[in-house]
């Protein structure tokens, strides 16, 4: 495999791309409102419309009538997905991905306060200011509330819709996503036989890696101390090997990463087809990347929001042996910008540089 513009720390990541790239992903549309172009992402509220599940009939409904009972929309959809998997080739798998964005973090609040241009070219490169810390940002009170809204809605769907809760849970290693997953799923009254909430912490579900300190994860020891009962994937490094404060991941590089990690979710075990409902607690940029990889239309999520997507994965022939994955160097000010109404202008005495403002990486 040919690699360009990668640091040595990323070679292990790219080496794993070859296997994952032999899987093709596609979104199976017609099941969720979020699939439809008429649905406005900027005003959409997943809690007002049953996660967006469309009220419709399914081919499997005829078989369910034999049970002599009424099934909810989510129960019928669950059986429809199971039927799709039962009837599919061994190299085809269907999964429902519940992609949840973390609640508001202190980095989100800081970007709103300073404005995006100033945030990107100076403030985001710091650990925080005199009142807040946004290095690997924690949730604000508002962010906690957003996660609790998701918690309450999941419980409502369990109680009223008998929704099939996730068979597997995954979470990004950044603090805001760990907290969001905990507030969202801990303490739910789950149906008998449901999978226990013990999310697997996976490095590659993290946010797009920029030079911002909010994208710099803390140590494995810190994460384990925060949630000691949660499993951490094999090979997870003690310190962050991907963030360096100098180079930033391109969207193409992130899509390669997303394809790689999806390849670790699909076809993962003998029961993978049966375990078709998957929760991923992640970030806006990473969810956007996943949506691109699975061929879903662009659908931005507000903090704390969730989008379910029915995805078909198919193993195909051998992938190309050449993949180029590039990262970019980002310049930033060394002092607060003079102006940043529409663009960032550094002070004359603080010309843009490409070295980190935070040196402890």
Automatic annotation (TrEMBL):
Pfam families: His_Phos_1. InterPro entries: His_Pase_superF_clade-1 (IPR013078), His_PPase_superfam (IPR029033), PGM_Phosphatase (IPR050275). Residues 1-19 form the signal peptide. The keyword Signal applies. GO terms for molecular function: phosphatase activity. GO terms for cellular component: cytoplasm. It comes from the Eukaryota. Keywords: Signal. This is Phosphoglycerate mutase. It comes from Penicillium canariense.
